[in-house]
């Protein structure tokens, strides 16, 4: 095993431990010390790579997520949006991702570095995929030519985050379907 | 001055101090002890009324908000929605309400009592006003008869909260207008 392989294996063990321990005791009680102890790593090894508990949790969550929120392109934009929203809801609604992601967003309200990293590494790439898929649909005439594409991420994801963070009711596929339907129909009379 | 008047004056002084001190030092550093000291009140007086810092902040924020988010009814639903969204943005974008409300939502991610109180005392009444105004518009034929009214709060507010909590970019009236326009046009071709 090379040094670089050992480093990768250790990094993965630390991230796995972060998710396991986070799920067991919750984000508030999670500490770098406890993660280091359970992962059999030095505290300083962790701090060398991650400046804070929030940064370590973000990386750990992203290691789970990988490409599960990629867009499929079956040619039917409504169906593809539903599929993508269902995947988002499965991710948000399932431990360890859901509760720990919710806690991370809570942390981002008082920690600008966590907020910036969350946007740079998760939200922005996701928004770019969303806009690309919708742009293709618009070119194929499946989307209103007037629709404000730059708002797509906010209008599609906003209602999910509203339910996750504000009303804190369970996220369901049916809820996602209603959002997609409402956005396609629109509020106005035609 | 009666005992009840004195109680009200003291309650108002404590809430005013919570907002002042919160604005000065931020929610994370705010403590019941410091609020009590500056308001000239006993710590136990505060704890008798508010179980936690989050509960006290929620009441203090609601005392600022009062009826500023009531819906006007000019007969034109698009114009009334814009007015209402602008008021929401003015509230969210202005200290002390904005940053402290954001911190409170952060707190609500790990404190279920704060989350429940936020919903019961602020979100649900707001949703009811929104649905009532939209229902009237639907009856007047200004809204698509198919539009899912129960989703109105989530689709209108969701993109505001997304910007406040996730992308953390400044909230502007122009952003609100784009949301209302996008929701009225819809994503679909007509």
CATH topology of the largest domain in chain A: Tetracycline Repressor, domain 2
Strand fraction of chain A equals under 5%
The count of helical stretches of chain A stands at: 9
- CATH class of the largest domain in chain A, named Mainly Alpha
3D shape of chain A: elongated
Overall number of strands of chain A? 0
What fraction, in percent, of the residue positions of chain A are helical?
over 70%
Rg of chain A computed from alpha carbons, rounded to a whole number of angstroms: 19 Å
Oligomer: homodimer
Mean pLDDT of chain A: 93
- The assigned CATH architecture of the largest domain in chain A is Orthogonal Bundle
Residue runs with pLDDT of under 50 for 5 or more positions of chain A: none
Query: Which class do the helix and strand fractions of chain A yield?
Result: mainly alpha
Largest sheet of chain A: none
How would you sum up this structure, described in words?
Two copies of one chain form a homodimer. Chain A folds into two domains: 3-49, Arc Repressor Mutant, subunit A (Orthogonal Bundle); 63-185, Tetracycline Repressor, domain 2, CATH 1.10.357. The model of chain A has no long low-confidence stretch (mean pLDDT 93). Chain A is built from nine helices and no strands. With 190 residues, chain A is an all-alpha fold. Chain A is 72% helix and 0% strand. At the A-B interface, α6, α7, α8 and α9 of A face α6, α7, α8 and α9 of B.
Could you name the key traits of this structure?
72% helix, homodimer, elongated, 190 residues, Tetracycline Repressor, domain 2
């Amino acid at each position: 095993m090379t040094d670089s392989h050992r480093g990768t294996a250790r990094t993965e063990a630390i991230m796995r431990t972060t998710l396991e321990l986070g799920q067991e005791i919750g984000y508030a009680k999670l500490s770098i010390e406890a993660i280091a102890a359970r992962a059999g790593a030095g505290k300083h090894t962790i701090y060398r790579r991650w400046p804070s508990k929030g940064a370590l949790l973000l990386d750990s969550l992203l290691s789970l997520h990988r490409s599960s929120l990629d867009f499929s392109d079956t040619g039917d934009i409504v169906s593809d949006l539903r599929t993508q929203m269902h995947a988002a809801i499965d991710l948000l609604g399932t431990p360890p991702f859901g509760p720990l992601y919710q806690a991370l967003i809570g942390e981002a309200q008082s920690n600008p570095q966590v907020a910036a990293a969350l946007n740079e590494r998760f939200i922005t790439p996701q928004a770019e995929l969303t806009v690309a898929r919708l742009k293709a649909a618009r070119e194929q005439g499946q989307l209103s030519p007037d629709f404000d594409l730059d708002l797509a991420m906010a209008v599609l994801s906003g209602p999910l985050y509203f339910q996750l963070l504000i009303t804190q009711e369970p996220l369901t596929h049916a809820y996602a379907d209603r959002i997609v339907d409402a956005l396609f129909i629109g509020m106005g009379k035609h």
